[in-house]
# Entry
Amino acid sequence: MGFIGLCGVFVALLATVCLLLLFILTLCWWVFPNQTHKKLMKCGLGGPTPSFPLGNIKEMKRAKNDNIESSLVVSSNNNVTHDIHSHVFPYFSCWQKSHGKVFVYWLGTEPFLYIADAELLKKMSAEVMAKRWGKPSVFRNDRDPMFGSGLVMVEGNDWVRHRHIVAPAFNPINLKGMANMMVESANKMIDRWATKIKLGEPEIDVEREIIATAGEIIARTSFGMKDDNARDVFDKLRALQMTLFKNNRYVGVPFGKYFNVKKTLEAKRLGREIDELLSSIIEARKKSPQKDSQKDLLGLLLQENHQVDGRLGKTLTTREVVDECKTFFFGGHETTALAITWTLLLLAMHEDWQNQLREEIREVVGNSQLDISMLAGLKKMKWVMNEVLRLYPPAPNVQRQAREDIKLDDLTVPNGTNLWIDVVAMHHDTEIWGKDANEFRPERFMDDVNGGCKHNMGYLPFGFGGRMCVGRNLTFMEYKIVLTLLLSRFSFKLSPSYNHSPSIMLSLRPTHGLPLIVQPL
Ligand code: HEM
# Structure
């Protein structure tokens, strides 16, 4: 065969490969997603019309940008409103008006079943056990540098294995050993604030301060912060979070990651460096003669791993332990910090509750040193926490992906369907909470763990079913320790410069920080 003949064969081969690729992409981006969409529409569901390749992202971004600069102040008494759903999820709130509490919308080429209906969720979780749920592949890929194959993202039997090893580390007896680390980090922050106040600067951005402190606490409780390697990991984890979430994102859009190649590559580099540093910390720990005396989560994971070593399917590899450490950091610090931050906003607005909590602290702790056994006595503080997590849930949504067809009465959710559960909408729904759903009333939790909600799936700050948050005991402890120390030293007032504009950046946070006027007692 001559040169021209060879070229012809090569061109024909290339054309075949291109056609095949085009065929596969058409199937993945158009045919399969539209089949799912049609099946859901046949069950009577509606939703906004998508366009290719962005789906409904354009409308979502437009609505979000319109809201970001606006503030939710009720002008009469300069008070803020807690009716935040239409502000943080303006697109969902708008689509709910036309399509109800369950509808289909699209992120890029991925249809999502939107759910703000507690009853439907109850039926689904009764039908599908934790192990049989998946997590949307688009989010698993997008958040790979943060969570890898950590507990938040793993599925099936791997999830069961990880959960069996990770959950015992968070039992209250193990957590006791971490209380001192929390007290030390909180006291460092308190000293910083006291110095600022002495210098005549009583206005403090408590959000920034508390996120930094909670980051330090989670790093210390997860993998220790004794050496430079650990500090380096901590700095890089924070940088990774900024890189991933300050970036304009196009999740679900074909090649969306590459719209900002620089940021994507930076995230990959940081992810790689963090993995290497954490691996070296873990290997050093395994060889350390004092490894059993280190009471952080990593020490407990390695012990747990060691105890069951040899039994099939019950151990984590070093790679998996790395991913769990990252998962604790990303899943645990900002969520807890935001629970404390929103609490300080609400206490600054409700001086009566600030005083009630201070009184309770006086009764329970008195002049003694704060001891972990006292925390259970802080009952009103628990009601306040529950109410804050209802009004401002740091984890504002939960996602799932069906791994099989799910049949519920008239609705069939096809295998592969992504689900988006809108926790903010459910927590503010007057149909299940009553007319005062948007008011701060901690006493609703006095005699009822569900806060008087008419539906037991209407309150989901820590998720639901077997995948319920594994770190919630750690949060309860940290919340009570930090708040007790803060309320014992300072009083809080809202600064006139506060602009109430909650927004979603993975978690639900105050867009412009939380400046408070802090005074020593
Ligand atoms: C206020 C604080 C917190 C909130 C609001 C929160 C919220 C949640 C929610 C909603 C889920 C369920 C996600 C889903 O079903 O897809 C979850 C799961 C999880 N959380 Fe938390 N979390 C908090 C604190 C923590 C802490 C302190 C840690 C660890 C240090 C942690 C680690 C995890 C892990 C590993 C999972 C995955 C559990 C599983 O899938 O089996 N969280 N969290």
About this structure: The CA atoms of residues 52 and 109 lie 7 Å apart. The mean pLDDT is 90. The radius of gyration is 25 Å. The longest helix spans residues 3-42.
